[in-house]
Write a structure and sequence with these properties.
Blueprint lengths: L9 H12 L5 E5 L6 H11 L6 E5 L8 H9 L6 H13 L12 H9 L4 H15 L7 E5 L13 H15 L4 E6 L2 H8 L8 E5 L5 H9 L5 H11 L3 H8 L4 H26 L1 E5 L2 E5 L1 H9 L7 E2 L5 H9 L3 E4 L4 E4 L2 H12 L2
Parallel strand pairs: 1-4, 1-5, 2-3, 3-4
Antiparallel strand pairs: 6-7, 8-10, 9-10
This protein binds adenosine-5'-diphosphate and magnesium ion.
Length: 356
Amino acid sequence: MKRIAFHNREKETKEIMDILDAEPSLITFVYGPINSGKTTMVSHLIEELPKNQKVFYINLRGRLISNYDEFIKVLFDVEHEERYEQIKKFLKPVVNVLPESYSGIPIPKDLFLKLFKEKEVEDAFVYIETVLRAFYKNDQNPVLVIDELQVIGDLKIDGFLIYKLFNFFVRLTKELHLAHVFVVTSDSLFIEQVYSQAMLKGRCRYLLVDDFDYETAAAFLKGYGITDEDMRVVWGYCGGKPVCLVELINCGNREEKAKEMFTFRIGELETQLKLVKELGDEIMIGSKRCDVHYEKLVATLKMFVSREEIGMNEVDEVSKRYLVKENILFVDPLTAMIAPQSRLDMLAIREVMRDA
Ligand SMILES: Nc1ncnc2c1ncn2[C@@H]1O[C@H](COP(=O)(O)OP(=O)(O)O)[C@@H](O)[C@H]1O
Ligand SMILES: [Mg+2]
């Protein structure tokens, strides 16, 4: 088995290191198409940080969060038994700064239940803030990373939880300069919503982690002895999507595998469009239920036959949201452009649109 080492990301890493070097003042949203390497980059960077810089990394991916209790459990990772010990360690320095009512260090699970059972979300925030303060020493601000935050985008706990969180993040950064806050997401509709959010204006920055460009992808493949001929094939089908490059590095017949991936994606796309054509579909926009129209989807996708990206306002909102939600298209609110999620998607769209 080949072990694939972390590759490059120099520019993005430098940007994040510069952010960490300064006093926290803005929330950083790390965004980009799916499987572009956001989680990998952030995880790698966390490992490289000096040991005295405390990092709290929370990944909401695949977590079912439908109420306050579940959210709190994920935040503190109490579902993992082995973490109890960690929580205990985590609490030690906090004890001194906690209000008097939190005496001693009880068994973490009990403490947890006592602290958060039927409490307000704000109590959890006060607690987190206290913990962060305890870890703020020697000029090293603690770092809070929340991956896949959009998972709780619709969650209502006495109003939308996401806005309470954003307020809390603004407090940690702009107001208290206490902790660096990074929010990572592949959901470009979520980023679009964040981008248009009045309460976040001037309080956050955006960092795009895109698929590798040609030079970066070529250097990555070269490191594993891939021939120029194979490189042409791999780039031709998959562009610089890291997850695809890794898969192709690891296989024997690259051209065959790349063609297989292409055929598979075409099949998926065809089936999806067929379903809408035959059964129709609908999506929610706010509290409004909207019909998805096959003809409009096709008209949108046809624009990519001759272009690699289109303007955000060239397509109807329902088709745009549907295709983004289904991970076929990616919106970049900063450039106001829409592009396929990957080169493979672009080629598949072109192929399917020839017969549509
Ligand atoms: N910089 C990198 N070097 C090597 N492999 C990478 C790199 N970035 C991503 N990958 C590969 O691509 C896969 C998907 O990346 P991931 O970080 O999960 O994407 P995202 O979080 O953007 O959806 C990873 O599991 C890894 O195999
Ligand atoms: Mg990820």
